[in-house]
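Q: Give me a protein?
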Amino acid sequence: MRHLIKITIIALVTISFTSCNKSSRPNYQYMPNMYEPVGYEAYQESSAFANGVEAQLPVDGTIPRGYTPFEYTNDIAGYDLAKAELQSPLDSMQFDAPRAKELYTIYCGICHGNKGNGKGNLVTRNKILGVPSYDDAGRAINSGSIYHVMYYGKNSMGSYANFLSEEERWQVVAHVMTLKADLEK
């Protein structure tokens, strides 16, 4: 008799749960704040600031945390100055060859080729033209000139300052120098 009562209770509970489920209406939400986000107005007017808007421009002369200013200008004189005096801050222990190769493949190899010979995928498909090899005699590139071009861009090559951090740019520069040395052998 006890087993019959237990089976009856389990059957009633099961039937009550399944009968409340209707596929034509949504189920209950037990914590609706997790499912339905509340929109906040980030730039609302406020009396706490002088012009009433919370988003403010940084103070003149300040430098954001983690940012290092680049002292060379975006012109021929700045390029020549960077080529003459800019040196890599990385030493041989800080150079991470696998990571540098990966960054180079992602950002540079599509045009310059994975060997630095100017035969990247876009060049072989005639999408862009005029990408020289790193060992061209007329180029005479060094780490300062490579970094300057990566920072500002040159000709049809755009700047990579927004895509790569300063340390990552120096890693790529070191990899380009190894590719140049391999091509000159």
Summary: The chain is about 45% helix and 0% strand.
